[in-house]
User: What shape does this take?
Amino acid sequence: MPMKLVFVGADHEVTGSCHYIEVGDKHILVDYGMEQGTDAFENAELPVGAPQIDYVFLTHAHIDHSGLLPLLYARGFRGQIYATDASCDLCSIMLRDCAHIQLSEAEWKSRKAKRGGDIVPEEPLYRMEDAEGAIKRLVPCKYNSVIEVCEGVKIRFTDVGHLLGSASIEVWLKEDDNEKKIVFSGDLGNKHQPLLKDPVYTEEADYVVMESTYGDRLHSAEMPDYVGELARILKETFDRGGNVVIPSFAVGRTQEMLYFLRQVKENALVKGHEDFPVYVDSPLAVEATGIFQENKWDCFDEEAMELVRNNINPISFAGLKLSITSDESKEINFDDTPKVIISASGMCEAGRIRHHLKHNLWRPESTILFVGYQAVGTLGRAIVEGAKEVKLFGEVIEVRAQIKKLAGISGHADKEGLIEWISAFKEKPKKVFIVHGEDSVMASFVECLKIEHGQRAYAPYSGSVFNLVSNKFEYEAEPVPVKKKTKPASGVYARLVAAGQRLVAVIKKCEGMANKDIGRFADQIITLCDKYDRG
Assistant: This one.
C-alpha cells in the first residue's frame, strides 16, 4: 500500500486544521479542527470513514485544531488521540465547553425557528457524550520522548511555545524498506512571550508541514511595553467612567492578560484607580487558569518560574474576581464601578463576551480592547475593521465605544520567526508544505521561502494527495470556493449513518474469529436488518 499524505483542512485558510496519513494498513489524522469565521474554500472529506481512523496526533488544544474530535467520535472513531499532558488536560475542559456551546446554539436556533413556524428542531453538531467519548480516547505524552505508536509509526512532541502544551510533532513512518519522517509544525509560538517557553527547533525531516498564519508580517523589532500600554488604556477609560472589555481566548490569552494585570496592580500603574476590579467571566477560562498552574513545571518560562519559586502566583492578584454562574455574569453589568471584564470567546462569536459587548459597545466612555487574532468573517474582525453597528441577540447595537488593539500581542510567530524555525533544519527538507494561512499570505510566504531561502515550498489545496515514497503528488486539487457556509451533517440520521460505518469497520476486524462467534454476530445483524428493512 502507498505511504501518503492528504491535505484536508486549513489549506489556504487559517482554521480547521487537519491532515491525513496512510501507512500500511494504518489511517492517521494530525489534528481535526473546527473552522471558525468565513471559509474561503471547501474542505475535502476525510479519505476514510471515522471508524477506520486508528490514531489522531494532536498538536494543541485550540478548537481550530481539536474541535471536531467529538464529531469524529460521534461518527464511530474508537482509536487513540495522542497529545501532550497539558493538551490532554485542556481538551478535557475545552471539548466539553464546545459541546455545551453546540447544544446551546442549537436550542436557541430551534426556538427561533419555532417562532417562525418551523417545527423541525436544530440538531447540535455533536453532544456532550461525544465530547466525553473523545476525551476518554486521549493518551497523555511527555515532551521530547519518542513514542512507538504501533509497528511502523513513532512520534515525538516538541514544545513550540504557542499555547500551554502546544507542540510540533515528529512522525517517523516505516513500510517495507521505506522510511520517512514528517514534521508537523503545529502553531509556532512567538518568542519572548509571557509565561510560556520559546519554541524549540527541530533539525531533521524528509517533509515538513508548516503553518503560515503571520507569514506576511513582522512583529515589532523591540519588545512592546505591554504593561505600560495596558495601564495607559485602563487609566484613560476609568477616568471617563467606562469599562475595559477584553474579548479573550479562554485558554492562553486570558492567562497572559492576567500576567500583565498582576504587574499593573503590583506597581500601582493606574493612578487614581489602583484598586480597580478585574472580572474573568468565563467558566472555561477559570478552569484553564487552574490547568496552567498544574502544568507550570513543564511549560512556564524562566521569568514566570522565578515568581513561582518566590511563592508568587504569576496569574493572580488582589481584586481578581472569577465569575462562574450566569447570575454572577449578569451582575457584572449592574455594577457601575469602572472595571476590566475579560470574557470569551476571543473572536466574539459565542459565549458571554457577546452580552458584555451588548452592554458596552454603545457607551462612548467604555473601551473594547482586542488582544488576539480576529479571523475573517467573525464579529471581532468586523468591530476591529470599523463597523458602525453590529447585531447582537437580534438587536442592532451602535458602536460608540473606543476600539483598541494591544499592539504586539500574538501567540503566533511572525514571518521572521517562521523562517528561523524552518531554517533550523540541518538539511533542507525534500518538500515544505505551507498550510494554516490566509490565501494571499500563503502565496507570498511560499515565494519568499523559494526565492530567498531555497526551500522546496508548496501550498496545496484541500484534497491534494502526496506520495511520500515517490516524492510526487498523486493528485493536486484545485481550489473550490465556498458557495454557502455549512457545517458538517449532524442529527439523528447522521448518527445512524455513522453507526453503519462503525459496523462495517467492526466486521472487518472479525476475520480470524471463531466461526461460531462470527455466525452469531451475522445472525444478530440479519435480525436487526429484518426488523427495520422497509423494502
In short: The domain at 226-405 is CATH 3.40.50.10890 (Rossmann fold).
